[in-house]
Amino acid sequence: MLLACNLFLIYLIYHQGAKMTKESGASCSVFSLKNFVGYQKESVVSKEIIKKRSGTVTLFAFDAGQGLSEHIAPFDTLVVVVDGTAEITISGKKFTVRSGEAIIMPANQKHALYARKAFKMALIMIRA
């Protein structure tokens, strides 16, 4: 069920903006979220795979000990952990999110992410 919801959100983001065509460089292919972005020592790596006015889908790889400091986003954001385990703090409450699990970070609430061990995630932001 969760996978179906994630795919539907990605579909909505992709199709609400201007449709991409062969002329714009878009292509269809099957890929592994887990393998689409690699770990780098002592770094956080990100790769934006969809960018539309209606939202974005970005993949991240966090090496152990890395994170994103507390910040606020103006839009609801869905985080899907695709490898490892993430420590996510939302409004001061800590959550452990494991591979295959997801969490919603509500708009305008402080949140931070930390990797006790390396993890990868897909971040899906819907602009409203």
Largest beta sheet: what is the strand line-up? 1-2-9-4-7
Structural class: mainly beta
From the coordinates shown, what is the CATH architecture? Sandwich
Report the count of strand segments: 9
The end-to-end distance, rounded to whole angstroms, is: 24 Å
CATH fold title: Jelly Rolls
CATH superfamily: Jelly Rolls
Query: Average pLDDT value?
Result: 84
Question: Mind telling me the CATH class?
Answer: Mainly Beta
Structure description:
This protein has 128 residues and is mainly β. The protein has a single domain, classed as Jelly Rolls, CATH 2.60.120.10. It contains two helices and nine strands, in the order ααβββββββββ. The strands form two sheets. The protein has a five-stranded antiparallel beta sheet. Strand 5 (85-90) and strand 6 form a beta hairpin. The longest helix has 15 residues, at 2-16.
Features:
128 residues, mainly beta, Jelly Rolls, 5-stranded antiparallel beta sheet, 4-stranded antiparallel beta sheet, 9 strands, 45% strand, disordered N terminus
Describe, in short, the structure shown:
Helices cover 15% and strands 45% of the residues. With 128 residues, the chain is mainly beta.
